[in-house]
């Protein structure tokens, strides 16, 4: 299990640990952990390695100075770009500075051109960590811009400087942040490294607990998604089973001219194991889907919405007829997933929203940031500035499981529990992948999964399918949403094979 800690939680752990440790022990351990991570990235013959260390004015800078001393001791050619604190520094930072000055590391004063002209093996980013208060400006900003133009690997200490550790947003409206290839984060993992701009700036993340006793690390309400969270719902199938054993799902959508979306969702549902899949079209119901004749096409007005688990929204439109269909669906006692236009109609009608929140049956909402913004009455930028907060508020307000899509999808429960998903990649940034996700998640609900575990598994599988397709060369550019569907089936069956009871 990978818990994620907020800055406040990390500070509290630090305060609890410090009295039990010699002064400066945590910074020295962070320096050692930083050096170990750096050595793993350097060529075997360390003496040939040119390492640029950026040391900021705070304790993140202190970690960098300790790292510099260790790497110089290991024989690397270390250059330190030091940004002295405006006022008095912490004693442990002073000690780290002394150690670096006494080592073979060279303190340099390089401008952007000089930095750009040197063939560095590695840059270590110790400008700012969890103490960043405001956007990077002036010399700090231009150093970060210079580093981001280099080709070499960049190791961020604790987190990429310029990033908000809690939200993954870059600090400041026009802010900059280091683009690291690797991050070694201290004491505990941090949500901001895995969502919003976090994944693009943190690279591969590794955690060093700085040898703190596990008892010092309290339980958290935020975790990275993991198969173990939903594995108990993976079951091998019995011979003595039939289509009725695996539930009925109906995808409610498809207003005039928007029939592709519900079809995509329905195909995904079929290939994720639902026993029978209906497509209930708001208008223009086709006789059948020639590519997937297994799907049963109906006119929504004639379909008994109480007879199946429901996915409501793909291509549904927001016309009067669609609003009535949504109201009927919300009144059903069956499990329900609301996506796309269903979310837009809920945002525009407080009564429908209340009806949703009063539902007793399992309910999942799958908004992208703009849909979440409409539901919360804020802007998409405000949602992205605090994706975890937005998902938590929406889950609480709607009393439903919320899947806030985007880089590092955030899944929230009404009780405040949050999971950030780590699978997936930019190949998913194409039309229709949301419909595939809603069909997949709806299919798990139809097979009897609880809302929370269905959402965790669906988001995990959806991302994993994209990751597998990219390794096979089918992306990230040009992946079509429909291509995810067979890959999801493979990933699901493999997971059942290896994990199921
Ligand atoms: N958490 C732990 O147990 C340990 C953490 N370590 C490392 O320490 C940092 C946190 O250190 P902290 O000093 O609190 O914060 P930072 O180093 O991130 O930066 C704060 C200093 O930077 C100044 N500041 C902040 N924003 C800016 C800015 N945009 N431009 C210029 N200067 C800025 C700030 O000064 P103020 O002017 O705001 O007072 C601070 O001086 C953590 O991330 C770990 O790496 C320990 O080493 C190990 C234990
Ligand atoms: K940093």
UniProtKB/TrEMBL annotation:
Reactions performed catalytically: (6R)-NADHX = (6S)-NADHX; (6R)-NADPHX = (6S)-NADPHX; (6S)-NADPHX + ADP = AMP + phosphate + NADPH + H(+); (6S)-NADHX + ADP = AMP + phosphate + NADH + H(+)
Family annotation (InterPro entries): CARKD, Nnr, Ribokinase-like, YjeF_N_dom, YjeF_N_dom_sf
GO molecular function: ADP-dependent NAD(P)H-hydrate dehydratase activity; ATP binding; kinase activity; metal ion binding; NAD(P)HX epimerase activity
Keywords tagged on the record: ATP-binding, Isomerase, Kinase, Lyase, Metal-binding, Multifunctional enzyme, NAD, NADP, Nucleotide-binding, Potassium, Transferase
Binding residues annotated for (6S)-NADPHX, in chain numbering: 59-63, 129-135, 158, 261, 315, 368, 435
EC number(s) stated in the UniProt entry for this protein: 4.2.1.136, 5.1.99.6
Annotated positions binding K(+): 60, 125, 161
Domain of life from the UniProt record: Bacteria
Biological processes, Gene Ontology terms: metabolite repair; nicotinamide nucleotide metabolic process
Binding-site residues for AMP, renumbered to this chain: 405-409, 434
The protein's required cofactors: Mg(2+); K(+)
Function summary: Catalyzes the dehydration of the S-form of NAD(P)HX at the expense of ADP, which is converted to AMP. Together with NAD(P)HX epimerase, which catalyzes the epimerization of the S- and R-forms, the enzyme allows the repair of both epimers of NAD(P)HX, a damaged form of NAD(P)H that is a result of enzymatic or heat-dependent hydration. Catalyzes the epimerization of the S- and R-forms of NAD(P)HX, a damaged form of NAD(P)H that is a result of enzymatic or heat-dependent hydration. This is a prerequisite for the S-specific NAD(P)H-hydrate dehydratase to allow the repair of both epimers of NAD(P)HX.
Protein family: Belongs to the NnrE/AIBP family.
Subunit and partners: Homotetramer.
Record-given protein name: Bifunctional NAD(P)H-hydrate repair enzyme
Protein species of origin: Rugamonas rubra
């Amino acid at each position: 299990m990978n818990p994620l800690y907020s800055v406040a939680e990390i500070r509290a752990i630090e305060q609890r640990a410090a009295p039990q440790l010699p002064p400066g022990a945590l910074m020295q351990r962070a320096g050692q952990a930083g050096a170990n991570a750096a050595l793993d990235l350097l060529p075997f013959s360390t003496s040939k390695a040119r390492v640029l260390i950026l040391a900021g004015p705070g304790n993140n800078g202190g970690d960098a100075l300790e790292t510099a001393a260790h790497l110089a001791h290991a024989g690397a050619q270390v250059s330190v770009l030091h940004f002295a604190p405006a006022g008095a520094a912490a004693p442990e930072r002073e000690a780290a500075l002394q150690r670096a000055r006494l080592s073979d590391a060279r303190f340099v004063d390089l401008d952007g051109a000089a930095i750009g002209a040197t063939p560095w093996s590695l840059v270590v980013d110790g400008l700012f960590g969890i103490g960043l208060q405001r956007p990077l400006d002036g010399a700090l900003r231009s150093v970060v811009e210079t580093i981001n133009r280099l080709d070499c690997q960049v190791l961020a200490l604790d987190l990429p400087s310029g990033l908000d550790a809690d939200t993954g947003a870059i600090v400041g409206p026009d802010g900059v942040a280091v683009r690291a290839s690797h991050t070694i984060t201290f004491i505990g993992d941090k949500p901001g490294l895995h969502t919003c701009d976090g994944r693009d700036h943190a690279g591969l993340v590794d955690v060093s607990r700085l040898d703190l006793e596990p008892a010092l690390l309290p339980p958290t309400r935020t975790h990275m998604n993991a198969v173990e969270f939903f594995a108990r719902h993976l079951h091998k199938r019995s011979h003595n089973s039939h289509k009725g054993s695996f539930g009925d799902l109906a995808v409610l959508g498809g207003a005039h001219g928007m029939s592709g979306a519900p079809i995509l969702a329905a195909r995904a549902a079929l290939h994720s194991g639902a026993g029978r899949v209906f497509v209930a079209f708001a208008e223009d119901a086709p006789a059948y889907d020639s590519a997937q004749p297994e799907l049963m096409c109906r006119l929504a007005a004639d379909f008994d919405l109480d007879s199946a688990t429901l996915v409501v929204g793909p291509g549904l439109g927001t016309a009067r007829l669609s609003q009535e269909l949504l109201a009927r669906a919300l009144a059903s006692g069956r499990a329900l997933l609301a996506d796309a236009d269903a979310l837009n109609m809920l945002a525009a009608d407080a009564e429908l929203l209340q009806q949703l929140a009063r539902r007793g049956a399992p309910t999942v909402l799958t908004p992208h940031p703009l849909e979440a913004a409409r539901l919360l009455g804020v802007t998409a930028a405000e949602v992205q500035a605090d994706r975890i907060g937005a998902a938590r508020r929406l889950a609480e307000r709607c009393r439903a499981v919320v899947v806030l899509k985007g880089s590092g999808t955030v899944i929230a429960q009404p009780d405040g529990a949050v999971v950030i998903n780590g699978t997936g990649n930019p190949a998913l940034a194409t039309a229709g992948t949301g419909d595939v996700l809603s069909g997949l998640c709806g299919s798990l609900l139809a097979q009897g999964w609880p809302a929370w575990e269905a959402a965790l598994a669906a988001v995990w599988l959806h991302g994993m399918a994209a990751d597998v397709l990219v390794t096979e060369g089918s992306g990230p550019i040009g992946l079509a949403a429909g291509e995810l569907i067979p890959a999801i089936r493979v990933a699901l069956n493999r997971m059942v094979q290896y994990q199921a009871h």
